[in-house]
Each structure stands twice: as C-alpha cells, then as structure tokens.
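Hi Y.,

Following your request, here is the sequence exactly as I used it, all 97 residues.
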Amino acid sequence: MMLLKIAQRYAEGRTLALLDPDDLANVTPAQSREWMRLVALGLIVTGTVAGALLAGLPEAAATPLIGVISLLTWSVLYGGRMVGADLVDVLRGQSRG
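Below is the corresponding structure, written out as tokens. Let me know if you'd prefer a different format.
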C-alpha cells in the first residue's frame, strides 16, 4: 500500500511529499557508511603502494600490482554496484550510457 502511495505521488510530481509525516513516525533513518568504504579503499591502496616501494619492486611490476589490488579492493567493498570495467571508464572520463 505504501509503494502505491509513493508511485501515485511521484506520478503527480509531488516528489517532496512522497509520504505523509505519520508514515515516517517510527522509522529509523539509514546511516551512510560510505566514508568507511572510502577510507578502507584509500588505506589499502596506499598500503599497497608503500609495500611495493618497501619491497623494492621495479616500477614495471609495481604499477600493475597496484592497479589489480585497487580494482579487487573496489570490487570487494562495493560488490556488484560497479564492475571494474566501469571503474576504469570512470577514471578515463568515459561514459557507456
């Protein structure tokens, strides 16, 4: 019933009032934990770079290693929300859509 109300109001263009205040009385707002994913991604990528430098890997070996670890970490943290190929397109500034 709630979805029907939302769909009807959205179709009417009432996007700022999709639900009544009474409908939201006992609802706990979702918490965004996006910052935790970004911090984890940054720490893992930075740690990979530091580890490659400390291990004395040549640049030709360190660069692909950092790229692969970065893409794998992104895939683990963000699941199926964005595939690795889409991330590469985003980094290149391209759009498929």
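The chain has a mean pLDDT of 85.

Thanks again,
Q.
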